[in-house]
Amino acid sequence: MILEPLFSRSVRMRSKVGLSLSPHLHFVDPSLACAALRTQTEDPMDDLGALGLLFESLVIRDLRTYSQEARGEVRFFGSYDDDEIDAIITYGNKRWAACEIKLNPEKAPAAAEDLNRIIRKIDTDHAGKPAFKAVITGFGTCRELDDGVFQIPVGCLGA
Question: Which phi and psi (to 5°) does residue 138 adopt?
Fold first, then answer.
């Protein structure tokens, strides 16, 4: 019970691209992985890719926790052509938000461009427009990027 599946969100798309339906697995608490691997404080800096995956699990855990209060559900959007949105938060039938997760805030502008590009593929007449779009980062400042995407440091999620 240390892993929890994150299921895909099916939305109708204009293209005939198949959707990825295999769930992603995230740690219920990423610190359990660090404890099991006996990770030392400086070790994660040796493997930033692994640190990024642990950070993504931490953010998914937090998004699930905060969205449950309003009966929201967290999923991901993925297609077989490798387009992916890390977290889709849904509230009811047509209320949803899209979030990319990047540990490094310097990657937020590129992530925002990708997020908007993928959202343009979604049939918003059917799914509705996103209530908000965000790139959640490990640190940095909270700010609005281009095209209505917000950069939100993980520490601001519970604020």
Answer: -75, -25
The pLDDT tens digits along the chain (159 residues) read: 677 766 676 555 444 444 556 777 767 778 877 777 776 655 555 677 778 888 999 999 999 999 988 888 998 887 667 788 999 999 877 789 999 999 999 999 999 999 999 998 887 787 788 999 999 999 999 999 978 999 999 999 875
Q: Which long-range contacts (CB under 8 A, 24 or more apart) does 42-49 make?
A: 48/103
Q: What is the pTM of this model?
A: 0.82
Paired tokens of 38? 């006996």
Note the residue count of the chain: 159
Cβ neighbours for 34, distance < 8 A, ≥ 6 positions apart:
44, 54
Question: Which conformational region is residue 147 in: left (phi greater than 0), alpha (psi within -120 to 50 degrees), or beta?
Answer: left
Q: How far is CA 149 from CA 39, 97, 107, 112, in A?
A: 34, 11, 13, 6
